[in-house]
Amino acid sequence: MNIGIVGLPNVGKSTLFQALTKKNVDRSNYPFATIDPNVGVVQVPDERLWKLSSLSKSKKTIPAIIEFVDIAGLVKGAAEGEGLGNKFLTHIKEVDAILEVVRIFEDPNIIHVSGNVDPKRDIEIIETELILKDLETAESALSRFEREAKTGDKKKIEKFEKLKKLVENLKSGRMASSSKENLDISEELRLLSAKPILYCFNFKEGTPMPKNLPQNSVLVDLQKEFEVSELSEKDRIELGEEQKLPILIKKDYELLDLITFFTTGEDETRAWTIPKDSKAPRAGRAIHSDFEERFIRAEVIFWEKLLEIGSWSKARELGQLRIEGKEYIVKDGDVIEFRI
Hints:
By secondary structure, the protein is of the alpha/beta class. It has helices at about 15-20, 45-55, 85-95, 120-150, 155-170, 185-190, 220-230, 235-240, 245-255, 280-285, 290-295, 305-310, 310-315; strands spanning about 1-5, 40-45, 60, 65-70, 95-105, 195-200, 215-220, 260-265, 270-275, 295-300, 320-325, 335-340.
């Protein structure tokens, strides 16, 4: 699963990407320093994994990961091609969710493409460009959907009616995500404004906080996070510097509606990523397709219970391993052994 880091130029996107991934990227103080997207893989912080690994004395410990994609800054008019906008919007189409970086501090030494900092306006610019690109995509699909509806198939007629309503919503300036009713059409057309969004407000100490921040948002001093990420773990501990990025990574994981289950043993303890509300066979697919196709049952225990008991074998002795079948919905934090 991947997250696209999106925003206007010079708001801190590449600084965030470098702090997250430790990859060197161009952070120059001018628009479009990034042209082609940078991609990096980031571990999902999870203390449960390390506790289970310690319990099992595992030789290897493998965390869950998220891929972050640093996408070049969008500008007003991007949907019409301004600032290579069409190319950059296409990059957004390839990601599963959006991490929108919004700068909320003034700094005369850092160029702002609009001349001044205005978080509300900047969010509106980005979202308007997403909507305009989606409108172009949706309108171009109308004739195809209409032809299919003329066959008389009820489902195709319903799809055409949904698309017409979606086009009306986009024309009125509403994001595709504002209507759950048209979610299936939005996903089929891979609409940009249907993707879940987490807002990252980039601030500096003393910055006045904007009012009425979107509910799904985090406040991070990205320059400070970048500087802390450059320190060794020893120096961070000595200086008492604690990174805020783990909070942001976890929120991104939740944004994608993902949960984690674990497998643990002497050879390896591993965190596995699956969609929320997955049934046991689907969870098995995360390990190997055979685990889904040939699923018989799963032995399950919650991670805290396993730590409390002290070992997998003792949990079995005490009858604490639950036997679950194909309809079992996996919970975040389950430790599972599959039987195929």
